[in-house]
């Protein structure tokens, strides 16, 4: 049986969704990822990951999948042809509007699955705004935690496989091999930053950046060793982790 929110009729949805249900909103992006990858990377990864999570644990945990929001806050890539950008303000309003509609069905748990690292801080704010306005419990998950926000990337990339790097390229090669041209990939690691103790990705002092601050090609990492095989392992590991997290979302309580 389909667990896509929009595949139900209105009356069916009213009967089947309730305070024990979880609604999952995958969010991607349409933005440049260097010359070796298409614009669709974050959108495809968020969508395929959400679908795999729902297939694995949707029935057991009563999770429903909203249509993937394809465009989000990609202004760090606005310099590039092809990137589509929602402003922070617009995206916040879109999230609040969707969340209000979901809350009206009686659902109490709303989860964002974010495929685009550039949204991460903004979505931290959105979780609180949605909670305050709708009363729903709100959660943010990532296919993998972005390295700029404490996630890991490969040692060869000095932990800076931030955008279009080895892991992301590998996962995308697993999902859409025909859309990847690895012959156009090079090593683009901002080596100088790695020597800093504080002012670095994931360090104690953050910095504002645009993707062409480091290199005109706009990707950050070393995709040259990427492979579909590595991507498959990363993808499947992420589905396991997300289902574990979803089981905790299901029973999460503030303990009052
Ligand atoms: Zn990406």
Number of strands: 4
Question: Can you tell me the overall shape?
Answer: globular
CATH level-1 class: Alpha Beta
**Overall CATH architecture:** 3-Layer(aba) Sandwich
**Would you tell me which CATH topology applies?**
Rossmann fold
Q: For the CA atoms, what is the radius of gyration?
A: 18 Å
For the largest beta sheet, what order do the strands appear in spatially?
A: 2-1-3-4
- Unreliable stretches (pLDDT < 50, length at least 5) are none
The share of residues in extended strands comes to 5-15%
Average pLDDT, all residues: 96
Explain the overall architecture.
With 256 residues, the protein is an alpha/beta fold. The protein has one domain: 3-Layer(aba) Sandwich (Rossmann fold). It contains seven helices and four strands; from the N terminus they run H-E-H-E-H-E-H-E-H-H-H. A four-stranded parallel sheet has the order 2-1-3-4, sandwiched between helices. Helix 2 links the parallel strand 1 and strand 2 (63-65). Helix 2 (41-61) packs across helix 7 and helix 3 (88-103) runs parallel beside helix 4 (120-134). The longest helix is centred in the last third of the chain and has 24 residues, at 228-251. 42% of the residues are buried. The mean pLDDT is 96. Zinc ion (ZN) binds at residues 33, 41-42, 116, 163, 168. Zinc ion is lined by residues 33, 41-42, 116, 163, 168.
